[in-house]
């Protein structure tokens, strides 16, 4: 009954478009959905109508409908596409990823931004690209105008740019979100300032296309050591490191694909802290700002009842980087004192990394930083202008646990449990993956799981014909899962896996909140 399935998917798409159109027209009868062809530069001024059209994309009804459209289109196109063509496009996705990274690294979005809606000929784009390259290097680039045109044409073919006429390219809405907002003169004279005071999207794309993409290309060789060459000469950056072996060199062992890809014994964060990786470490901090895109705008504010905490309550953001989540909580709730903990090398760049945007939080002491190894005992916090606190009201861990295998993750949670008061809350906020099969048990229809945990399911109803996890619409979360395998030999956990891990460290889940159709979750736990 495949035709019936195709018609059902078509109906899902039509109904979802109706939901989006109705939501827009309820706000303004003539308001149109943002066009893919028209750039929307986040740092620039826009008309009230443009801002409203963009803001409504985050409306819960629109978000849920958009998810259904992407899921149905993905399932429909996979059904009708020739399997070989689909597999070939997917297996060659690395080339696609590299072209996206090139688009960002070459500052082409900013070049085309200044060119305006008429676009720019590839010969002029090439001249601008080369004019922005460092002049104090001995290396010469093999890039030519002709080669550049082929890279840009692939991006135009996949809706990252527009080719207005032969070899004339312009930004579109998709590419415009990579705009750093910085003038070309700054990108030429001070390129290290590109990501300062931005949403981090450009930094994330550069990070993901660099070390994260390179090591994920080695997962198969890592999983099957017999496929690794005796001499690691075909990996990305072979150095002097010699991995441990047992007998035959073909049985070389690598901790994670990262170690194979970069021929290093270092764990990821140690790798970033090597002197020659100073640029990567700095970029990583800015890139974490972009992980806000993984959840609804300021979603952390709806993930927990912050307003119910008493005046002066201390919230500790464990492994909080430069404070990407902490600034949102501290800014919205002046009655709280938020302390961000991370490695010394990370928090050194924290305050300057925000520019002037949140200076009032730092100056008032509502947001502060301290260096701590979260595998060690939790020591009392001294809040600027406040008293010493041994047991914070809340421990917040945002995208921390997925960096660690079960045993070290349990150790992190156990150290926090040892310092918790009876009313201390633990909030774990990160991607929690549902199964790709239908499972209508354990709270899947909403309400409570068998253990009493409040849940926010399901993603779709049975009659839609969609995968219960929304398939293509939520593939990003499962890609992050494999990225974590490649980086740390860890994983993005399912709800059941995270519950079990927390309980083994003395924390019991009481609630899991989600936005409609989102894999991103806010899990609250209490001491047991």
Overall description:
There is one protein chain. Strand 9, helix 20 (406-418) and strand 10 (425-431) form a beta-alpha-beta unit. The strands form four sheets. Strands 6-5-4-9-10-14-13 form a seven-stranded mixed beta sheet, with helices on both faces. The protein has a three-stranded antiparallel beta sheet with strand order 1-3-2. The protein has helices at 2-27, 48-55, 60-80, 83-91, 93-105, 108-115, 122-131, 145-157, 173-176, 184-189, 201-216, 219-223, 257-262, 268-272, 278-287, 326-332, 344-347, 350-353, 359-364, 406-418, 475-488, 495-504; strands at 120-121, 161-165, 168-171, 314-318, 337-342, 367-371, 381-382, 388-389, 394-398, 425-431, 447-448, 454-455, 507-514, 520-527. The chain has 22 helices and 14 strands. It is 41% helix and 12% strand. It is globular and about 65 Å long. The protein has 528 residues and is of the alpha/beta class. Mean pLDDT is 89; it is low at 232-252 and 440-447.
How are the secondary structure elements laid out?
Layout: H1 2-27, H2 48-55, H3 60-80, H4 83-91, H5 93-105, H6 108-115, E1 120-121, H7 122-131, H8 145-157, E2 161-165, E3 168-171, H9 173-176, H10 184-189, H11 201-216, H12 219-223, H13 257-262, H14 268-272, H15 278-287, E4 314-318, H16 326-332, E5 337-342, H17 344-347, H18 350-353, H19 359-364, E6 367-371, E7 381-382, E8 388-389, E9 394-398, H20 406-418, E10 425-431, E11 447-448, E12 454-455, H21 475-488, H22 495-504, E13 507-514, E14 520-527
Parallel strand pairs: 4-5, 4-9, 5-6, 9-10
Antiparallel strand pairs: 1-3, 2-3, 7-8, 10-14, 11-12, 13-14
Helix pairs in contact: 1-3, 5-8, 5-11, 7-8, 11-15, 11-21
